[in-house]
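Need residues for this backbone.
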C-alpha cells in the first residue's frame, strides 16, 4: 500500500510572499485628520502587542484613509486635502518613501490581496477611483465611479473592488480588476460609506450612514439583508475567521453582528465619535479610532469589552485596513510521495 503524505497548499497570490514575510511589528497606523481649518498631517503608529505609541509619521494634509500591504512592508495613506495625494510609509523605518498624486479629496483606500494594486476613492469633483501600481508607486489608471466615492474593499481573490458611493441615492460600484471598469451598480441604503468583504468572499457589508443600517450583499451582487445598527454607522470590518462583523456608530458605540444570521449580538461603548476599525491578524483585538476625543479604543473580542484607551493625534479617522491583514491560510491535503522517493508499505 502506497503511503501518502500531507503537503501544504496555498492559493495563487499567497505563495509569493508567504515565505518572505518581513519581521515587522504588528503596528496600527492611525491617520489623524485634524479639524478644519487646522488640518493635521500625521499618522500615529501603535504597537498592538504593547498598545504603546512607537512613532509619529508626517504625511500629507488631512490624512484619512489608510491600508497596509499584505506583506506588511508599506502603509498607503490617503490625504484628504483637495490637492489629493497618497503618502507611502515604509513600515520598517516609519518614514514616507513616496508621495503619489491622485484625484481630489481621496478618502477610502484598499489593496489587492497580491499587493500589486492600490485602489483609492477620490470623493470630490469628478468622482473617480485612482489605481496605483505598487511596484512603481505611480497611478496606472483612473476609473469613473459613482457619485462621491468613499469606502473601498477588495474581494479575497482580488477579482472585484467594491466602492461605496456616499450619496443620498445610495449605491455601490463594482469594479472588475481585470478590466478596471465598473461591471455592476448595486442600490443600498442612504449615504453608504464603509465597506468590507467577508474573508471567504461570500458577503459584502456596507455601512449606510444615512439610515443607520448595514446592507448585506451576496456573491451575485444582490442585497440579501439589511441590518439595523446604531446612529450613522461609518466603518465596518469582519473578523479574520469571518464569524463576526463590527460596525462603528456615531452614537459612541460599536455594533457586533453574527454573520451566520445577520443579528446584532452585542453593543460596545467606546470613545466619542468612533470611525475607523480594524482587527489584529489573530482576531483577538479590535482597534477603533475615536474622532472627537483623539483616542483609540482597544476591544478584546473574546468578551467585547474595551481593555484600554490610547491617546493619539487630532481627530483620528483611520478609515481602512490600518493593521496588516492576517497571513493566508495553509491547507493540508493528502498527496502521494514523489516518484523518486521510496514508497513505504
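Answer:
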Amino acid at each position: 500500500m502506497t503511503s501518502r503524505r500531507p503537503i501544504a497548499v496555498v492559493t495563487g497570490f499567497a505563495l509569493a510572499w508567504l515565505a518572505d514575510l518581513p519581521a515587522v511589528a504588528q503596528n496600527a497606523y492611525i491617520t489623524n485628520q485634524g479639524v478644519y481649518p487646522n488640518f493635521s498631517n500625521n499618522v500615529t503608529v501603535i504597537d498592538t502587542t504593547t498598545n504603546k505609541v512607537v512613532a509619529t509619521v508626517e504625511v500629507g494634509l488631512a490624512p484619512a484613509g489608510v491600508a497596509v500591504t499584505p506583506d506588511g512592508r508599506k502603509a498607503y495613506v490617503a490625504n484628504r486635502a483637495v490637492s489629493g495625494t497618497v503618502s507611502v510609509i515604509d513600515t520598517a523605518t516609519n518614514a514616507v518613501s513616496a508621495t503619489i498624486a491622485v484625484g481630489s479629496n481621496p478618502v477610502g483606500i484598499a489593496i489587492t490581496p497580491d499587493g500589486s494594486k492600490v485602489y483609492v476613492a477620490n470623493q470630490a469633483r469628478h468622482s473617480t477611483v485612482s489605481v496605483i501600481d505598487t511596484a512603481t508607486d505611480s497611478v496606472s489608471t483612473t476609473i469613473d465611479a459613482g457619485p462621491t466615492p468613499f469606502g473601498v474593499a477588495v474581494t479575497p481573490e482580488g477579482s472585484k473592488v467594491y466602492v461605496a458611493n456616499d450619496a443620498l441615492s445610495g449605491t455601490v460600484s463594482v469594479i472588475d480588476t481585470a478590466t478596471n471598469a465598473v461591471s455592476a451598480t448595486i442600490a443600498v441604503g442612504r449615504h453608504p460609506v464603509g465597506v468590507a468583504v467577508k474573508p471567504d468572499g461570500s458577503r459584502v457589508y456596507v455601512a449606510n450612514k444615512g439610515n443607520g443600517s448595514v446592507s448585506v450583499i451576496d456573491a451575485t451582487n444582490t442585497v440579501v439583508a439589511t441590518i439595523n445598527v446604531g446612529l450613522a454607522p461609518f466603518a465596518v470590518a469582519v473578523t479574520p475567521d469571518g464569524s463576526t462583523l463590527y460596525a462603528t456608530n456615531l452614537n459612541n458605540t460599536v455594533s457586533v453582528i453574527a454573520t451566520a444570521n445577520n443579528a446584532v449580538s452585542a453593543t460596545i461603548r467606546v470613545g466619542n465619535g468612533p470611525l475607523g476599525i480594524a482587527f489584529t491578524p489573530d482576531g483577538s483585538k479590535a482597534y477603533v479610532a475615536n474622532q472627537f476625543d483623539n483616542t483609540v479604543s482597544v476591544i478584546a473580542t473574546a468578551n467585547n469589552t474595551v481593555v484600554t484607551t490610547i491617546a493619539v493625534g487630532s481627530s483620528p479617522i483611520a478609515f481602512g485596513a490600518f493593521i496588516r491583514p492576517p497571513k493566508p491560510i495553509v491547507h493540508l491535503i493528502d498527496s502521494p510521495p514523489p516518484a523518486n522517493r521510496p514508497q513505504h508499505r
